[in-house]
Amino acid sequence: MKLGRQTTLKKSVTVSGQGVHSNAPVSITLMPAPAHSGIAFRRTNLPGDMERVIEAKWNRVSTTELCTVLGDPSRGSVSTVEHLMASLSALGVDNIMIEIDGPEVPIMDGSAAAFVAAIDWAGIKVLRAPRRYIKILKPVRVDQGRSFSELLPAASGFHMDVSIDFPVPAIGAQSKMMDLTPARFRREISRARTFGLLRDVEKLWKLGFALGSSLDNSIAVDDTRVLNPEGLRSSDEFVCHKMLDAVGDLALAGAPIIGTYRAFCPGHKMNFLVLQAMFADRSSFQYVEAPARSEPFYGDFGLVPVPAFAAEAN
């Protein structure tokens, strides 16, 4: 693939499933879009047969309590976007319109595997326009209690260094470092499922949330053991899922990031806050464009700076 150029899908593809909170059926259709369109959701099936387009950008985030939500819920929003956004970002899809007929992206099996399969089936088309990146120039960090998330400069690529430490023996402490590439995302991250303590899920059920959560789409933990009969997909599945969520949340920057993401016990809120802090400090990053080339893009050789206040369309 010509990684210096923008991409879209070769054809449309539809994925259907249940919403994790409403348990209602929902379908999404991923459709090709022209260069500089970026990623956006088209909410259909709104009252009055209305539609609403919502950009997949950090400044469209309305809440991060249980998942990442884009748009105003009173006018039509889209929630649980992180696994789909992670798949699009990690596999290098820049421009796409996502038509969705409900308020939640389907949870599928709790991982990104189904979205990766859908993108593979549709295929990726390389466009003529050069791809734009966000290059981190200086550290940006946010802290909340014992948790933190930060973005650090790197010469090339996107690196991840994530640790978790849960006071629950079945989860405990896990750490993972990796350079994010499509191959490593597929192999190590994409199949990691969402997880939670059984007692917390039961509380959410009583409040009317997580109605679609089950052992078919989540890892349920009861202090000392994993309740899923099949067990874990990998020994580090918990921290891998935190990395999956982070890739999806950081994709809301609107362009691939050249830098290092380092975090301890992160969540959707922390990922959003570090993007918010980065965009609040225009000296912390720079937009750069890579010339279209046939060989893989690994470093910043040939990167062309874009004025800091250039339009944010990708």
TrEMBL record:
UniProt-listed GO biological process terms: lipid A biosynthetic process
Gene Ontology MF terms in the entry: metal ion binding; UDP-3-O-acyl-N-acetylglucosamine deacetylase activity
Membrane-spanning intervals of the chain: none
One of the Pfam families matching this protein, by short name: LpxC
SUPFAM superfamilies, sorted: Ribosomal protein S5 domain 2-like
Gene Ontology CC entries for this record: membrane
Domain of life of the native organism: Bacteria
Catalytic activity reported: a UDP-3-O-[(3R)-3-hydroxyacyl]-N-acetyl-alpha-D-glucosamine + H2O = a UDP-3-O-[(3R)-3-hydroxyacyl]-alpha-D-glucosamine + acetate
Entry-linked InterPro entries: Ribosomal_Su5_D2-typ_SF (IPR020568), UDP-acyl_GlcNac_deAcase (IPR004463), UDP-acyl_GlcNac_deAcase_C (IPR011334), UDP-acyl_N-AcGlcN_deAcase_N (IPR015870)
Entry keyword set: Hydrolase, Lipid A biosynthesis, Lipid biosynthesis, Lipid metabolism, Metal-binding, Zinc
Active-site residue numbers: H268
EC number: 3.5.1.108
UniProt pathway: Glycolipid biosynthesis; lipid IV(A) biosynthesis; lipid IV(A) from (3R)-3-hydroxytetradecanoyl-[acyl-carrier-protein] and UDP-N-acetyl-alpha-D-glucosamine: step 2/6
Residues that bind Zn(2+): H83, H241, D245
Requisite cofactors: Zn(2+)
Family: Belongs to the LpxC family.
General function of this protein: Catalyzes the hydrolysis of UDP-3-O-myristoyl-N-acetylglucosamine to form UDP-3-O-myristoylglucosamine and acetate, the committed step in lipid A biosynthesis.
The protein's name in its UniProt record: UDP-3-O-acyl-N-acetylglucosamine deacetylase
The organism's taxonomic lineage, starting at the top: Bacteria, Pseudomonadati, Pseudomonadota, Alphaproteobacteria, Hyphomicrobiales
